[in-house]
User: Fold Sulfur oxidation protein SoxY from Pseudogemmobacter humi.
Amino acid sequence: MTLSRRDALWLGFGGVAAAVLPGTAAFAATVDELTAAFTGGATPGEGGLTLTAPEIAENGNTVPVEVSAPGAVAIMLLAAGNPEPAVATFTFGPAAAAQRAATRIRLAQTQDVIALARMGDGSVIRAQTTVKVTIGGCGG
Assistant:
């Protein structure tokens, strides 16, 4: 088989496009994989992490979420039912006045929102809440 220069360029562009486009199955990570990567294999505990989200969200495009974990060095937010479950990771340095963050997230459907916090001593804590979405926000 002879590969022309034009064919080689098209193959190269196809590979770059596959690597750059979001939502490809090759790059999608599950909640369990993301949790294992964040915790380093440690079993998350309960308590000390506050996750605030509405019980019912009329529109999944902008759902307000707030997390707070005094003493945390990092907090990760996950949306279990989204095509890409990783929502955000917040990292706190030693000069942070408080280990809390507030943001708005997009939810595709009714699902669990999960927060994981890595504490200063290396332990990990977890909080979870279910948000009922009446109109999905991820094109669903």
Remarks:
- The beta strands are 45-46, 50-52, 56-57, 63-68, 72-79, 86-91, 100-105, 111-119, 124-133.
- The radius of gyration is 19 Å.
- The first helix runs from residue 5 to 20.
- The CA atoms of residues 57 and 133 lie 5 Å apart.
